[in-house]
Amino acid sequence: MASLSCHQKSIIIVLTILVAGANAADIFLTWNVSLDTTLNPISVQQPVITINGRFPGPTINATTNDFVHINVFNDLDEPLLFTWNGIQQRLNSWQDGVSGTNCPIQPGQNWTYKFQTKDQIGSFFYFPSINFQKAGGGFGAIRVNNRAVIAVPFPKPEDEFDLLIGDWYYDSYQMIRSVMDTEVVAYQTIPDIMLMNGKVPFGHELTKNHESFTVTSGKTYRFRISNVGTALSFNFRIQNHKLVLVETEGSYTNQITLDSLDVHVGQSYSVLVTMNQVESDYYIVASPKLINASANSSSLVGVGVLHYSNSIAKLSSPLPSGPDPFDLDFSIDQAKSIRWNLTTGAARPNPQGTFNVNNVTISQTFILESSTSQIRGDPRYSINNVSYRVPDTPLKLADHFDNGSGVYQLDWFPTNSANDEAAYGVSVVTGNHKGWIELVFLNTLGGFMDTWHLDGFGFHVVGIGKGKWGAEARSSYNLIDPVVRSTVQVYPGGWTAVYAFLDNPGMWNLRSQNLKNWFLGQEMYIRVHNDDPNPAKERPPPSNLLLCGKYGNGGDGSQDPVGAPARAPSPWWT
């Protein structure tokens, strides 16, 4: 029987090495990324981005400080990049996988990412970061486990389940991308269905291929839940079962018991669920927020099945009800109740609370307002009335070779007020190295939820509120035990404030996690620079560095991202 080559399947080779006095491992993966027209998750002919033929893609299962090598073969007909949502890429933004740090992998080519899960634990996910491809799949779970020498603050569960939940379009991502220049699609259209691990809701008329988990009575299981969608927050619940929240995006939380949990676009959580009910089958539900979706009829209500191993009963009861999807007070109160566990270790043996914000000195404040705008007739999303335009040359590449000259102008972007008129720009601002920054996010997008993500860091979520933010809001900040995460929601008409310690030199993307917002300009970059050339302070470019744009050879990798608007004639402002 012929064996599969390394270009046909994922290969995981683990070599134990000694790093900084702690055991770490090298994990080698080979990914073939292609467009599959046969999977049809909703029984409609639709191309899906798969990795080694799988949708969702394979789980990356690592431990703190491991080195992950992923050789990505791009079998799509367009450029490709992957980003690692929540992996901080310590001292190494060269591996971040966004348009500002990396040249894309061209069709028919391959490139190897090498990154370390340095000083991290927790639940994360990866996805393709350019060309609106996330709406076509290509995402998968990332687990970063504790080292054996550091205790986990709860008993070992019987098993762990990855649950990637997200909204999905009936149309292909290419089709949606092609009409993004219309206001209806850019501002109003929402996805059509909610998938769980790439599967449609239980009982859906299009297919019987729903997600289910088989469990044993009396045992406790860990569910790692991520919102991998493009637009919609959801409320997650399991019929007749309590959820014990234990972790979010690399931080152990104070353990709180919940009936349901709101999960916003780009966020990840871990909950423990004990199988203490009558042996039967139970609904797993993810219903959208801020949407009138009938729990028993709408395709936008994701439904899976929790199956007790000895159960012979069939599901027949109505779906369990959740909170009112428009009840912002419920959601805000729950968000504020998610606190950092100050006494447990995580990636390091010292307690998480060793790193607190109670007495820090803020060296910078950015007040960032998200909004829609029309620029030259094009519908766009903006930050402080500036809509980001992706330059031909990645910012990090230009920064390395020419200090950004000819590609971006540092610090022209208004960080504390909105411009009078909307305009395009390449927005790059200085973040003070080893300084504390306060980021205040304002949501003026009407009735839509927004979520923000900062690559390279975890930030302390110190405040969430309704209405306008003002300096007096600081008196309401939680400076005792704010949870640390990398993605945070901002409620309609409201604000969210976070603190981040900028100790990780690099070029770091700050963006909306809502895919249309990001694709149409709601992003910027924070340049955290350390003048020390010591590679222990920031790593040099990798030996396999791709060149493109002004540094490319004959246009290798230098074309626009597919479907992106025409570039601005000025490199930083028009």
Automatic annotation (TrEMBL):
Residue ranges annotated for the Plastocyanin-like domain, each copy included: 40-147, 163-311, 393-532
UniProt entry tagged with the keyword Chloroplast: no
Keyword annotations: Glycoprotein, Signal
Annotated GO MF terms: copper ion binding; oxidoreductase activity
Transmembrane parts of this sequence: none
Region (Disordered): 530-574
Bias (Basic and acidic residues): 530-540
InterPro entries: Cu-oxidase-like_N, Cu-oxidase_2nd, Cu-oxidase_C, Cu-oxidase_fam, Cupredoxin
Gene Ontology CC: plasma membrane
Signal peptide: 1-24
Family affiliation: Belongs to the multicopper oxidase family.
Annotated protein name in UniProt: Monocopper oxidase-like protein SKU5
Organism: Linum tenue
